[in-house]
């Protein structure tokens, strides 16, 4: 899976493209939370997502928008942030993908009255390559997977977006994802559990 210029939440957005719309926003939000945690901007405080530096910025509009939201809101558990206003993050990621030429925004009117925007894939080659390589990586040895890609696939598996590998391979992939820091392991586990719960409940 190419790490390229696509962010972690952007890659999850594309992997979730054919999923039920109610499942797309939580997995993209989880990806954004994981990206902030990997950068050391969010930490776990007894299950609470906690900003570490109130003045820090990433330069990524999606991540900075979420970080600002978390900073200005009352404390919540990771599981709450996976779904709370998650559509905002999904919409921001889609706009980012439009700007990068991966998606195209088509404007139309519902019932001829209400303006609406539908996003369609404009870079089909890149879209297919991402999904094909995800399957190839899941079939290979987890220890060779780059850590950011392991995080992407671990969250995608938790959300039921990809055919599940064996339990041992899935856990090895999750372990590979947490090599960035010991603290990140607890955070990723929280996000995985929240995604699995939201998938089962249909939230």
Topology:
Blueprint: H1 8-15, H2 21-38, E1 42-45, E2 48-51, H3 61-72, H4 78-83, H5 86-99, E3 103-110, E4 114-121, H6 124-138, H7 147-158, H8 167-177, H9 182-201
Antiparallel strand pairs: 1-2, 3-4
Largest sheet: 2 strands, antiparallel
Backbone structural class: mainly alpha
Count of runs of 4 or more consecutive helical residues: 9
Strand content: 5-15%
Flag low-confidence runs. Answer: none
Q: Major sheet: order of its strands?
A: 1-2
Task: Bin the helical content.
Answer: 55-70%
Radius of gyration: 16 Å
Distance between the termini: 28 Å
For this entry, give a set of tags.
single chain, two-stranded antiparallel sheet, 4 strands, golgi apparatus, 203 residues, mainly alpha, GPP34-like, 57% helix, GPP34 family phosphoprotein
Structural commentary:
Keywords: Golgi apparatus, Lipid-binding, Membrane. It is a peripheral membrane protein. Its main location: Golgi. It contains 9 helices and 4 strands, in the order H-H-E-E-H-H-H-E-E-H-H-H-H. The longest helix is centred in the last third of the chain and has 20 residues, at 182-201. A two-stranded antiparallel ribbon has the order 1-2. A two-stranded antiparallel sheet has the order 3-4. The mean pLDDT is 88. A hairpin with a 2-residue loop joins strand 1 (42-45) and strand 2 (48-51). It has helices at residues 8-15, 21-38, 61-72, 78-83, 86-99, 124-138, 147-158, 167-177, 182-201; strands at 42-45, 48-51, 103-110, 114-121. It has 203 residues and is mainly alpha-helical.
